[in-house]
Amino acid sequence: METVVSGIRSTGNLHLGNYYGAIQNFIKMQHEYNCYFFIADLHSLTTHPTPANLHSNVKHVLVEYLAAGIDPEKATIYVQSDVPEVAELYLYLNMNAYLGELERSTSFKDKVRAQPDNVNAGLLTYPVLMAADIIIHKATKVPVGKDQEQHLEMARTFGNRFNRLYNNDYFPEPYAFSYGSNLVKIPGLDGKGKMGKSEGEANAVYLSDAPEIIRKKVMRAVTDSGPTVENQEKPQEIQNLFDLMKVVSTEDTYQHFDNLYNTMQVRYGDLKKQLAEDMVNATAPIRDRINEIANDSAYLSRVASLGAEKARESATKTIREVREIIGFRKF
To answer: What is the predicted pLDDT for the residue at 181?
Structure first.
C-alpha cells in the first residue's frame, strides 16, 4: 500500500472545517493506504505555548482524532515529539536548505507580518520540519490544502536535493492527494473565508462545543438585510450559511430555505435556528465520544504508545539508512 502522511498542529480543538475538510477522508483512507496521522506539537513551539497548554492541546487533538473515527489499529496516530528521529532528519535537511528559498516561503512572509515580535528560526525553517515529517516515512501522498502546496513543493525539493547530493535515489517524491472527487471547503461564521482557529472563537464551530455554544455562535453569524429581487445571487456571508447547511442539513431542508431566499421570503433567524440544530445533531455522536475518551487516560496512553512504536519503527529505519548514506560510521 502507498504511504499517506498528514499532520495537524496542536493549537486547539478541531472544528467542522477539520472534520468535513480532512478527517472524514482520513477515516476512509485508513482502510486503503498505509496512513500516518500525527499531532504536530513540535511545530506549535513557534508560538511558545506554556507547558500546560502544550500537553492539553495535544490531548485535545488526540481525543478528537479518535472520537471522529480514526482507528489506531488501522492507522498510525502519533505525537510528533514522540518520534525524535523526525528532529534528527530535520537537522540533516536544514544543512542543505538555503536562506533565500526559506525567506521566499509565503507562509514565512505571512507569519512575519502576523507576529513581527516573534520571528524565530523555527518559523523560517518550518517547511524543513514539514518535509522531515513527510519523507521520514517515505510518503508519496499528502492530503494538503492550497495553502500548503508550496510546503509540499519544498519537501520535494529537499528530498531531491538530498538524493542528488549523495548520489542516491533514496527519497520518493510526495505529491498532494485529494481523496475522492470533491474537496469540501467549510466556510466560517464571520462571513469571510474558511473556518479556522486563527480567525477567532466565534468563526469556528468546534466538535466539542456544547449545543448551547453552537446555537449562540450560529445566531451571531453575519447576515445582510435580505434579498431585494427574486433569484438574486447570494452575497458571500449568506452563501457561507447555505454552504454550511449543504454539509450538515438534509437536502429537503437546504432546498426549503433556498426556495425561501429565491422568493424573498427567507427569515434569517429561522434559517440560523435550523442550521444550529442540524450542527448540534451532526456533532452529537462525536461530542459524546469526546467526553467518553477524554476521561479514559489509560486508553489514551495505550494509543499514544502504540502510535509512537509504529511511527518509530518506520522512522528509525529511515534514519539508520540516511546516516549510512551521509557517511556516519561508528568506530
So the answer is: 56
* pLDDT above 70 as % of the chain: 97
Identify the CA nearest to 105 among candidates 132, 129, 140.
129
Instruction: Give buried/exposed letters for 280-307 (b at 16+ CB in 10 A, else e).
Output: bebbeebbebbeebbeeeeebeebbeeb
pLDDT at position 182: 59
Residue 302 in 3-state DSSP? helix
- Nearest by Cα to 36 from 79, 67, 68, 69: 79
- Cα distance between residue 203 and residue 321, in whole Å: 46
Among the listed residues 66, 56, 80, the one whose alpha carbon sits nearest the alpha carbon of residue 30: 66
* pTM of the shown model: 0.88
Compute the distance between CA of residue 266 and CA of residue 9 in angstroms, rounded to an integer: 39
pLDDT of residue 183: 59
Rounded CA-CA distance 212/218 in Å is 10
Place of cell 538524493: 163
Mean pLDDT of the chain: 93
Q: Which of 51, 50, 55, 75 is nearest to 65 (CA)?
A: 75
Residue numbers annotated as active site: 111, 194, 197
